[in-house]
Amino acid sequence: QVQLVESGGGLVQAGGSLRLSCAASGWIFSINGMGWYRQAPGKQRELVAVITSGGSPYYADSVKGRFTISRDNAKNTAYLQMNNLKPEDTADYYCNAGIRPIRPFTAGDYWGQGTQVTVSS
């Protein structure tokens, strides 16, 4: 069974840094795009950053210049390096990936369980 597991969240002061990881496991044939979303209390889930299978990144305007998304295809893992964190970055962060399992051979959209990031002022 395919699953995504996030790690790396926590409490940090404004201006600090955190690195999130998202590891895909299971019988995986291929992974297309991987991305990070976040959801703050009382708000809708929003896109933070995505990266294609070829390594091309896309960022939300609110995180450009501060966050960097990357991936290690050999490890089926995506990362989100977050620098110069602000209190408004406080949210639950979710990993998302388009994955085609070996069996059943049907591509689908997978989500992790989320990891909490809290930035204090």
Protein architecture, described:
The chain has about 120 residues and is an all-beta fold. It is built from no helices and eleven strands. Strands 2, 4, 5, 6, 9, 10 and 11 form a seven-stranded mixed β-sheet that branches. Strands 1-3-8-7 form a four-stranded antiparallel β-sheet, with no helix packed on it. The N and C termini lie far apart (about 40 Å). The model has no long low-confidence stretch (mean pLDDT about 95).
The number of helical segments is 0
Structural class: mainly beta
Radius of gyration: 14 Å
- Let me know the average pLDDT: 96
Distance between the termini: 40 Å
Total strands: 11
Note the main sheet. Answer: 7 strands, mixed
Q: Beta-strand percentage?
A: over 45%
Spell out the helices and strands N to C: EEEEEEEEEEE
Show unreliable segments.
none
Short description:
With about 120 residues, the protein is mainly beta. Helix content is about 0%, strand content about 60%. It contains no helices and eleven strands.
Give keywords:
single chain, mainly beta, four-stranded antiparallel sheet, about 0% helix, seven-stranded mixed sheet, about 120 residues, 11 strands
Can you lay out the helices and strands and say which pair or pack?
Elements: E1 3-7, E2 10-13, E3 18-25, E4 28-39, E5 46-51, E6 57-59, E7 67-72, E8 77-82, E9 91-101, E10 108-111, E11 115-120
Parallel strand pairs: 2-11
Antiparallel strand pairs: 1-3, 3-8, 4-5, 4-9, 5-6, 7-8, 9-10, 9-11
